[in-house]
User: Which sequence fits this backbone?
């Protein structure tokens, strides 16, 4: 890159008549070289660091799920949700308080090919266990009528939401080892199928508030800032 930049500068300053246009052209060319170099470095980093690729795809999946949950809330399918809850045993991507299905623990995945569905199902079961433990811990002091609202708020439904090319291969009502698998683009349709007892608005707001406070406390301890 340095050689090309030097050669281009030589051509402009020595062989060509320096004008405002040639100096502008020199600046554009050098800026393009820098941008191309940075892009190559970034691509090389991602290509050689599988963990970086894994985290990047995971972030894409979580962002897409978050967008769908925003739509679900606007359509009245859920009361709300909390993202990225850090626990000692692992993280919860999204813990959703539905209107008619208790709590839903969403494990977002980005895959080009879904060859590890059994592993994903096992991970989703662990997510459910973590979510149930968290709910019991936060709500054990008030497990009366306010939180029950007929539907037990501690009931957690796990689901794996797939994004990327693999989502196009997920059939409707797909289940692996008892865990639902849903294509990201069909998440809202899946949420509509939840048909338990209604979850009270006040209880839902309290659960979400407790989850958000818990997330904030864990991030303060770990030195992270809230998004």
Assistant:
């Amino acid at each position: 890159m340095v050689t090309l930049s030097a050669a281009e500068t030589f051509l402009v300053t020595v062989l060509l008549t320096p004008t405002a246009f040639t100096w502008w052209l020199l600046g554009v060319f050098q800026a393009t070289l820098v941008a191309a170099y940075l892009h190559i470095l970034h691509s090389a980093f991602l290509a050689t660091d599988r963990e970086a690729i894994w985290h990047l795809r995971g972030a894409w999946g979580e962002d897409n799920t978050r967008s769908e949950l925003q739509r679900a809330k606007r359509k009245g399918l859920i009361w709300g949700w909390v993202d990225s809850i850090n626990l000692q045993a692992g993280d919860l991507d999204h813990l959703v308080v539905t209107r008619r299905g208790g709590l839903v623990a969403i494990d977002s995945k980005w895959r080009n090919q879904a060859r590890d569905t059994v592993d994903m199902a096992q991970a989703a079961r662990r997510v459910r266990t973590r979510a149930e433990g968290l709910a019991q811990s936060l709500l054990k002091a008030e497990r009366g009528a306010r939180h029950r609202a007929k539907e037990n708020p501690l009931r957690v439904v796990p689901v794996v939401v797939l994004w990327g090319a693999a989502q196009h291969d997920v059939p409707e009502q797909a289940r692996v080892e008892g865990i639902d698998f849903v294509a990201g683009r069909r998440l809202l349709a899946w949420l509509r199928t939840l048909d338990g007892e209604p979850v009270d608005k006040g209880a839902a707001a309290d659960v979400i508030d407790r989850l958000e406070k818990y997330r904030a406390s864990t991030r303060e301890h770990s030195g992270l800032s809230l998004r």
Remarks:
- The helical segments are 2-15, 20-48, 50-74, 117-139, 145-148, 187-192, 201-222.
